[in-house]
Amino acid sequence: MTQSLINVHNLTKTYRVPVRPAGLWAAARSLLHPTYEDVPAVRQVSFSIQPGEMVGLIGPNGAGKTTMLKMLCGLLHPSAGEASVAGFIPWQRQPAYLRSISMLMGNKSQMLWDIPPLDSLRVLGEIYAVPPVELRRKLDELIELLEMQELLNKPVRNLSLGERMKCELAGGLLYSPQVLFLDEPTLGLDVSMQIRLRRYLAECNQRTGVTVLLTSHYMADVMALCRRVILIHHGQVLYDGELNGLAHKMAPFKLLRVTLRVEDFQGQALPADLPNGVELIEQQAGILTLRAPRALAAAATACLLQSLPVADLSVEDPAIEAVIDQVYQAGAV
Amino acid sequence: MSATSPSRSAVFSMLQLRGGWALVRGLWLSWLQYRSFFFLLAFGWMIPPLIAMLVWMAAAGDGSLQGLNRANLAAYYLALILVNQVTYAQTNWTVGDLIRTGELNRVLLRPIPPLYDALASEFAGKVVYLVFDLPVVAVLAMILRPEMHWTLPGLLAFLPALVFAWALRFLWGYWLALLAFWTTRADALLGLQDTLVFLLAGQVAPLALLPPTMQYIAHLLPFRYMLAFPVEVLSGQMDTRQMFTGFAMQLAWLLFSALLTLLCWRLGVRRYTAVGG
User: Is A66 a domain residue?
Assistant: First the structure.
């Protein structure tokens, strides 16, 4: 525990939000008697992250992911609880701390709008006190990796969303931070750029040991980079562990995919002796997909093989996206 | 320098001046893209004192007003135009937007003091405005033939009076702008500050030409010390006692606005980071 780079203990954030009914009268009344509501965004979250880990922070919209990242990078004071990152208390925002982290968010641009990105990157290098030789080397590396040569001399305002994202990434990685907080890093990037970026982040992590905490709505990002995920919903941790274990823990069922021999298929109903709890979720041109509780998967398979003209049968874990969708929709395990 | 005192590079690093200077360079690079905007802005700020100058010069005719003849009035107003451009804190108009739009996040995440952002903008701005102002004022001086009675103490005292005037005008506007942490439209207060500077800081008329009650109020409030005071110091209108009283008032208001700025920043950032940005 003491060797963790990021330690979060019972971290809580409650927003105090003014509320009033619609209408002019209510607006006037709220001037005299404003009423507030406490909205819990993060509730007693605890976890720790070891140096060099890459962890995905996932959850539906409004789950508290960004609030969590903002507290860890020092932009928000928590309502309760404690956190330390690289030995610092984030919300004290000490210069040494700010130099050791990088926070990339969709709505925060480090690039100066009217000048080419290369000028902005050099200014950032100075702000973060990167030694000149190291700055040149790092710039060359990032420019090549992110294929930015053609962007360097155009004003940032003339770049596309994806191109600007590349510049932000270069700015965030320029000073070799110890911890990277990434909020939707591949937003706006095309598929091949997403793949390259994931590869670079993984390489960066292996080479420099940078610790990464990442939120993304693209599960491909999380699956490619993070062995460990923390799933939060309504501000609480629902799952913290291996990505591979998520399906097992959160979706205690298997998918049975049955291909029937078309010539023998008469459109018959499912066998009557199919164990209770097994349900048909999709049927298309002789291919049936059933969902069975893990404990009943073997019995259901046997029953199907006995009763139906089966050409092929496979037993699979549900796709991770489907599991997460189920959790997001249900709101609980 | 003793062995225990910090070396120059240590002080440089402690104050993170390299980052601050980088901000100035970044702003210059940005502003070069739309320099005409800044020149027009500087021209706009010049207009009200120019109009006042022409009115008072016409009113003085071939005689004088409170001892100021046409050439004295021209000298007073040309100096005032330059001092106005140097002390006008245009940065404060952008502080409220930073807070409202959440752009302050970018500033808070940088490993340099957040005030550097405003100071860099101030410094970068002054240089750009003066590139425009100095030639314009030089041409006006050739046309209007100003006369000013320089004195050595006046000349020596002008520089500190100017620096303190800028610091006071900047910090007074900065703490007003920081009220955006609490109210969504603090800009109106900056507009009010500009109006009071126009009325009570020697723009609409040299203070000597104001009615006695107005003069008394102007000497008490901070606005005179943001603009008129350095011009009066330069033009040798004051005796030593008046100059010392003026500096004392200027420094007292400067200290007060520095304290208000510190208070508003501490409480404001705490509030900002508590409610989200």
Answer: yes
